[in-house]
Write a structure and sequence with these properties.
about 140 residues; alpha+beta; Sufe protein. Chain: A; 3-stranded antiparallel β-sheet; 3 strands; about 45% helix; SUF system NifU family Fe-S cluster assembly protein; iron-sulfur cluster binding
């Protein structure tokens, strides 16, 4: 195993064992999107607070594999404080990365880059993208896209 693979594995496990933004927002503060991956049983409940075209807060609850839960943790970290357009662009870039497409090296994905290896395992891609699909659905629900 390369040192980069080892680093990525450690980043994924860190987000899985110590998830960021775990919890939920009060329903009066935002909206909640619940999604399931029937293939493996992963589930997520994503709470979003969107104000004036900006993702003010994002939290998640869920059960699933390390890929699914760490992806949700990384996503909530990455989108908080971003405009809706930026969050959707990041979701698009993530989707491209999961499909094995080339992505612009000038874009700093931070910890999200640790999930790039998931593209080699088609059965795990749905795990990694579950939270991102919830984000896209939530933004549509909020009427922000």
């Amino acid at each position: 195993m390369s040192s980069l693979d080892d680093l990525y594995r450690r980043v994924i496990m860190d987000h899985y064992q110590k998830p960021r933004n775990r919890g939920k927002l009060d329903e009066s503060e935002g909206l909640v999107v619940n999604l399931n991956n029937p293939t493996c049983g992963d589930s997520i409940s994503l709470s979003l607070k969107v104000e004036e075209g900006k993702v003010v807060d994002a939290r998640f609850l869920g059960e699933g594999c390390s890929i699914s839960m760490s992806s949700a943790s990384m996503m909530t970290e990455a989108i908080k404080g971003r405009s809706v357009e930026e969050a959707l662009k990041l979701a698009s870039i993530f989707s491209d990365m999961m499909q094995g497409k080339e992505i612009d090296d000038s874009i700093d994905l931070g910890d999200i880059e640790a999930l790039s290896g998931v593209a080699k395992f088609p059965a795990r891609i749905k795990c990694a993208t579950l939270a991102w699909k919830a984000l896209e659905q939530g933004i549509r629900q909020a009427g922000e896209s």
